[in-house]
Amino acid sequence: MKTINQVKQTNDYSLFSKLEGNRNINRAHYNKLKKSIKEESLIVPIIINEKYEIIDGQNRFEAWKELNLPIPFIINRGYGLAQVQRLNSNIKNWTTKDYADCYSTLGNKHYTTYKEFKAKYDLGDYESIALLQNQKGGSGHNFENFRNGRFRVRNYKKACDNAEKVLKLAEFYEGYKRRSFVFALMHLINNKNFNFNTLTHKLKYQSTKLVDCTNKTQYLFLLQSIYNFKSSKKINLIYN
Q: What was the pLDDT predicted at 138?
């Protein structure tokens, strides 16, 4: 039997610090945890690195500190933000907001821009990422890059222009923020034969035709049908 990383304990709370870039305290989880600790303080050590930065157990640390209880801890040398994300993904997944806050705190301007864009237009996470990267639609690859800190804003002005177009369709369709609808519209916008003003003009007389669809492809065919209504020359908007 081999002993690895023994558990230590201290009441000196000043030894510990938050790892820069780690997500903030979850108040709901913290309050629930604090109540549980009051009933019975189980020894579940926090994990820190050699700098005494908390890698795992921020909520536990704050609860023990407020209750004036000793802090059990394990030191894992070399641990950093990557290990924080990996540990948390096995327990409670980080949200897109967590990743945005993390990299924004570390000074990555692309994530700060994402947060500003998201707050301004109130569109979904995947939709906002795709718009800022000027993609026709979202993909797992895009979100993987976002999680890994490789997200880059390609053309902010164009992203804002396209987001404004999405919002303008609110008067015609209640589901204008649906992910598959936004991705379908982005697909059309990237088609050189598409004219947004033509679409809004046609929708003034056919808004009732714009109904919920189950996926992007169905929306594309529906929007193409509306776009080509009473047109002598039918435009192919689905395939460039």
A: 56
Residue in this structure with the two tokens 């529906």, named with its chain if needed: 222
HSE (side-chain half, CA atoms, 13 Å) at 87? 17
C-alpha 215/C-alpha 179 separation (Å) is 9
**Dist CA 26 CA 126 (whole Å):** 23
Q: Give the distance between the most distant pair of CA atoms in the chain.
A: 82
Alpha helices in 133-215 (DSSP H): 140-147, 156-168, 179-189, 196-206
Q: Which residues contact 207 (CB under 8 A, 6 or more apart)?
A: 172, 173
Strands 8-10 and 71-75: antiparallel
Residues 50, 84: contact at Cβ < 8 Å?
no
What is the C-alpha to C-alpha distance for residues 12 and 33, in angstroms, rounded to an integer?
21
171: pLDDT strictly greater than 70 = yes
Residue 40 pLDDT > 90:
no
- Give the distance, in angstroms, between the CA of residue 102 and the centroid of all CA atoms in the same chain: 11
CB crowding 74-108: b at 16 or more within 10 Å, else e: bbeeebebebbbeebeeeeebebebbbbbbbeeeb
Q: Rounded distance, CA 49 to CA 30, Å?
A: 22
How large is the average pLDDT for residues 165-186?
95
DSSP string, 12-58: -GGG-EEPTTPPPP-HHHHHHHHHHHHH------EEE-TT-EEEE-H
Q: Tokens in use for 212?
A: 């919920």
